[in-house]
Design a protein that fits this description.
The chain is mainly alpha-helical. The chain has a domain of about 110 residues: Cytochrome Bc1 Complex, Chain D, domain 2. It is built from 13 helices and 4 strands. β1 and β2 form a beta hairpin. α3 crosses α7. The longest helix has 14 residues. Bound molecules: heme C (2 copies). The site of one heme C has 27 residues, from α4, β2, α5, α6 and α10. Keywords: Cell membrane, Electron transport, Heme, Iron, Membrane, Metal-binding, Repeat, Respiratory chain, Signal, Transport. InterPro entries: Cyt_c-like_dom (IPR009056), Cyt_c-like_dom_sf (IPR036909), Cyt_C_IC (IPR008168), Cytochrome_c-type_DH (IPR051459), Membr-bd_ADH_cyt_c (IPR014353). It is found in: Cell membrane.
Length: about 300
């Protein structure tokens, strides 16, 4: 961060009312319970210094880089981590698991990333939690509500410029899934999903998102897709764009095998392509997330 921004934050914090608080007892396992171990970690992964704009890039790109890599902390969720919890710089922004969600690929990959998004799509999503393609869910809802919805349009455009310039990650095209699984999944889809998302997966503009070409559906890891099927969709509803649209939950209705076949189907129908989902992926996730009863 720039020195001026750090000073401004300090000045703001000084205006807050002091509170008395007792720090929570440290329950980390060895060696994480030793603050000194941070010295080693910093030696390996921390680069001291202030952000310097890249003279080869536009001022708008540099502003975007400053926000995304610095205060926006987007890589904290969207970049894969190594075993010590540091970002794998060679795979930055290519998507990562977080709190049993999958924060998708933000590079120009057309299937699982933002390759088919315009800069305007990104700005609308970060400003309101919605755009013509998708909605912000789970931890991203919080990011939009508490952070990006409060940014200026100029800063959001700068973020979009930086993200659109990220080179597309390369990913292998998974093999076509088992035909029987596709047939089973397709039958479930027609039965329980198609009334809203339509038989061709195209959704209804402004109401039901398209599942065709959708990055949430085709992410490397299917966590977000499975959570939405099990728990339903609860859109972020920032005060500048309140929303009452929700998707019902299906965890009470569909077995692990059924959810796996259905997820495999939507990941591979209508020109979509992504790895198959197994029943154990579904049961693992069910064990980790709270089930919600639906009034659907
Ligand atoms: C606390 C974790 C977290 C942080 C921090 C975070 N994200 Fe996300 N993001 C997620 C998760 C989880 C999703 C998947 C759920 C969804 O689609 O809304 C997501 C989804 C997205 C999407 C939608 C992608 C798609 O293909 O549907 C975009 C764009 C995005 N994030 C951009 C950003 C930007 C830019 C920042 C930094 C300003 C950021 N995120 C910071 C967790 C995070
Ligand atoms: C009653 C209508 C309805 C039904 C039935 C329904 N959905 Fe949804 N779905 C929605 C709505 C509305 C959203 C957007 C949620 C939001 O904005 O909070 C959504 C969002 C989604 C998303 C996230 C897409 C994105 O990128 O934002 C996926 C994936 C999805 N649904 C899959 C399914 C599947 C699979 C089924 C069948 C089990 C299904 N839906 C059944 C209404 C429905």
């Amino acid at each position: 961060m720039t020195r001026a921004d750090v000073n401004d934050i300090r000045a703001y914090l000084r205006t807050l009312e002091p509170v008395r608080s007792v720090p929570t007892e440290n329950k980390f396992p060895w060696p994480l319970d030793h603050r000194l171990s941070m010295i080693g970690w910093n030696g390996l992964f921390f680069e001291p210094g202030e952000f310097k704009p890249d003279p080869k890039q536009s001022a708008e790109w540099s502003r975007g880089a400053y926000l995304v890599e610095g205060l926006g902390h987007c890589g904290a969720c969207h970049s894969p981590k190594n075993i010590l919890g540091a970002t794998k710089t060679s795979e930055a922004y290519q998507g990562s698991e977080i709190q049993n969600w999958f924060a998708p690929n933000l590079t120009g990959n057309r299937r699982s990333g933002l390759g088919s998004w315009s800069a305007e799509d990104i700005v609308a999503f970060l400003k309101t939690g919605h755009n013509a393609r998708t909605t912000a869910y789970g931890p991203m809802g919080e990011v939009v509500r508490e952070s990006t919805s409060k940014m200026t349009d100029q800063d959001l455009k700068a973020i979009a410029t930086f993200l659109k310039a990220l080179p597309a990650s390369t990913s292998d095209t998974p093999d076509a899934p088992d035909r029987n699984v596709m047939a089973t999944g397709g039958a479930i889809y027609r039965d329980v999903c198609s009334a809203c998302h339509q038989l061709g997966g195209e959704g209804v503009k402004g109401i039901f998102p398209s599942l065709r070409g959708d990055a949430v559906v085709q992410s490397d890891q299917p966590l977000t897709l499975l959570r939405i099927i099990l728990n339903g969709g609860r859109a972020a509803s920032p005060s500048n764009h309140p929303s009452s649209l929700t998707m019902p939950s299906f965890d009470w209705k569909l077995s692990d095998d059924q959810v796996a076949a259905l997820a495999t189907y939507v990941r591979n129908e209508w020109g979509n392509r992504a790895g198959p989902v197994s029943a154990s992926d579904v049961s693992d996730l069910r064990g980790k997330i709270q089930s919600v009863t639906s009034d659907y």
